[in-house]
Write a structure and sequence with these properties.
Helix content: 40-55%
Bound molecules: NADP nicotinamide-adenine-dinucleotide phosphate
Strand content: 15-25%
Structural class: alpha/beta
Number of strands: 11
Radius of gyration: 19 Å
Order of helices and strands: EHEHEHEHHHEHEHEEEEHEH
Mean pLDDT: 97
Number of helices: 10
Length: 282
């Protein structure tokens, strides 16, 4: 049986560590504030924002929600971001994605100060990650590194295959695993003989958004399998990109869905908020 990597528990540890740091900062008169901009009334976005606010509350981070109507023009949203950039009481800025279709998300992300870019999506944050300079890292891949470290999974010199090359998961994941001295392959929808590629992996990280796609045929005996997928199965139940029941007996360690990578994303957002204090004061 594979070792189960418990993301819920590890995310809890990180939230508690953040809570401790926030309390220590507060003794020195420093408050940590996250501003969350929500445009429109997308129900899923509202749930995500509420979860982030709950995590802030637990950690002692002040959360400030700015709600804008669905029809907000681009210029108005850019002005809101600019004001938050210039507000010294705000440490982190997050614009909840996706934005309504008439808005240009890339331009909005570029407008966020890289010193407050706690999502790690700004081109400067991405560039800093790739050349090893200080900056924010996208929360989901940063959370996976924490999962590996805290579960004692060795990365140095090992074969890591990441499937998926999105800007928020696959690509930054590749950079982080390089930093961990793994030998990295990033596969995608054009990759030939995917099974052959993934079966080379000591660490297989899946981020494609296809429910239960990766069966045991994709997994090397004893591999560590990290499943980023947040998908729905044929009954509408939350599941991952990995067919857990089929792949688990072959894997050496595996993350479940739910309770694996998912809880790490918000925990790492909280960590980025406290790290913003250091970045802004250095
Ligand atoms: P995305 O932007 O849709 O990218 C999907 C990637 O998978 C693309 O690079 C695509 O290749 C590749 N792909 C799709 N089908 C493939 C196939 N059959 N074989 C090989 N590669 C394939 O997805 P994302 O935003 O990275 O999200 C991926 C998954 O992670 C989703 O389930 C999402 O819900 C989940 N997610 C979870 C969290 C969390 O907090 N846990 C955070 C973010 C994302 P091409 O580039 O060639 O099209």
């Amino acid at each position: 049986m594979a070792e189960l990597i418990n993301g819920k528990e590890i995310a809890g540890q990180i939230r508690d560590e953040v809570k401790g740091t926030v309390a220590a900062l507060s003794v020195r008169g420093i408050r940590v504030t996250l501003a969350v901009v929500l445009v429109g009334e997308d129900p899923a976005s509202q749930v995500y924002v509420r979860n982030k606010e709950k995590a802030c509350e637990y950690c002692g981070i002040v959360s400030r929600r700015i709600t804008l109507p669905e029809q907000t023009p681009q210029e108005e949203l850019l002005k809101v971001v600019k004001d938050l950039n210039e507000d010294p009481s705000v440490n982190g800025i997050l614009v909840q994605l996706p934005l309504p279709r008439h808005l240009d998300a890339d331009e909005v992300i570029r407008a966020i100060s890289p010193l407050k870019d706690v999502d790690g999506f700004h081109p400067q944050s991405v560039g800093a990650l790739s050349i090893g300079l200080p900056g924010f890292t996208s929360c989901t891949p940063a959370g996976i590194i924490e999962l590996l470290h805290r579960s004692g999974i060795k990365t140095d010199g090992r074969e890591c295959v990441i499937v998926g090359r999105s800007n928020i998961v696959g690509k930054p994941m590749g950079m982080l695993m390089l930093r961990e001295n793994a030998t990295v392959t990033i596969a995608h929808s054009h990759t030939k003989n995917l099974q052959e590629v993934t079966r080379r992996a000591d660490i297989l990280i899946t981020a494609i958004g296809k429910p239960k796609f990766f069966t045991r045929d994709y997994v090397k005996e004893g591999a560590c399998v990290i499943d980023c997928g947040m998908d729905r199965d044929e009954n509408g139940k939350l599941c991952g990109d990995v067919d857990f029941a089929d792949a688990e007996p072959v894997a050496g360690a595996i993350t479940p869905v739910p309770g694996g990578v998912g809880p790490m994303t918000v925990a790492m957002l909280m960590k980025n908020c406290v790290d913003s204090i250091v970045l802004q004061r250095s």
